[in-house]
Amino acid sequence: MASQFCILLPLLLAQVGLGQWLPPAVGGTQLKKVAQWSAVDFSFPSAKDRDEAIASGRYTPENCIPLDMDVDYGNAAKSRLFITIPRFQTGIPYTLGRVSGTQGPSGPLVEPYPNAAIQDRPESKNCNGIVSVFRIKIDECNRMWVLDTGRVGETRMCPPKLLVFDMKTDQIIHRYEIPAEQLVCDLSLLVNLLVDVQDPSPLGSCQDTKVYMADVTAPGMIVYDMARRKSWRITNKQMHPNPDYGTFTIAGESFDLMDGIVAMAMSPRIPTDNVVFSTYGRSWRPVSDRLLYFHALASMTENAVRTSVLNNDTVWEDNVEAEQRAFRPIGNRYSQSVAEAMDSNGNLIFGLVGQNAIACWDSTTPYTPANMRILSQNSETLQFPSGLKVIRNRKGVEELWVLTCRFQKVMTGSLNTNETNFRIQAIQMPEILGRKTSCKL
Prior knowledge:
Elements: H1 2-8, E1 26-28, E2 32-37, H2 47-56, E3 68-72, E4 80-84, E5 96-104, E6 107-112, E7 133-138, E8 143-148, E9 151-152, E10 155-156, E11 161-166, E12 171-177, E13 190-197, E14 209-215, E15 220-225, E16 230-234, E17 247-250, E18 253-256, E19 261-266, E20 275-278, E21 283-286, E22 291-296, E23 301-306, H3 307-310, H4 313-316, E24 328-332, E25 340-342, E26 347-352, E27 357-362, E28 372-378, E29 385-392, E30 398-404, H5 407-412, E31 422-428, H6 429-433
Antiparallel strand pairs: 1-28, 2-31, 3-4, 4-5, 5-6, 7-8, 8-11, 9-10, 11-12, 13-14, 14-15, 15-16, 17-18, 19-22, 20-21, 22-23, 23-24, 25-26, 26-27, 27-28, 29-30, 30-31
């Protein structure tokens, strides 16, 4: 099983099929299975350690819900697949892990990353470690950005923070704690991040990086400027949930969740004639702008704002609600959506919760259902796509990666650890887009 998994990871080959809007329960191109679990099992030092973790309540298999993933293609010798398991409650031994090639009783074992000590026993309130992670991002500088909420369930153990790992050494190379004044008491929960590296060229140092973090429960956004080690808060009405869409129905099970901004994606760079002196590259370079797309979980509306607006910290220092009209609703979907990502051609890929599907929109067209296409739909394997990324592999080909977690069963208390509940699937973008869809190749 271990060798089979290692083969599946780099091979993302599937036949192209074109899905139509609201097709049958199984339609479009089916994604390729990479890993799946009935319950997440971890790599412990020994069977005795595992048994002791279960007996003490430190490891409760049914409490471990993976939410996101990313792939490290920077190591020429071996690709690595990472997942996050947020500490929604106790009983989760590790919150950030690498999917190993060793098969456990319910799926491939997850090894704590970078080690067990840095994220073990959060109740000790070791704020130098990792408490709870919803999502991660590996950037083009071969760094993993980890957004630590600092919370276990409703309890704040530590301040939220950003940690940056060098994927060559697996060492922390940067750390930033979110200032308390940029949070809303104990309500704030930072669950997603976008990383925009503005100097990734050989002349750059990768220090000119902006990070955008979504606050889902006190709807807002934290922007972090790595070069200046400075962050600021932004709020806008489009980041709030819509009560009309707070009920979710998946595979016949319904639950209510009034979550605000959660999904974010960035457009390719927008050409500009403006230039700025690069402190790190020691040269003049073009100033690039991008559109940041975002939406609340309890919403059907997609929104957009220019990153140049978000990056102007002086606008927000005196008023976190400034520039309200810079945030534009661009249209509506037929369903709520958890995660989205944009490829290098400007195609926005996103999950559709109500349709158990992955859809695509060409961002050069109006954001309407008529300009969207379902790329893949499966009522069994695409329930609640909570993690979705477009990742460029070693050959320069973009791949679509999706993690699904059957979240409706978590919310309704019907999770059965004898069934397959969590899946990671992937496919190369040219394979799933084809040439007959409105999304560009």
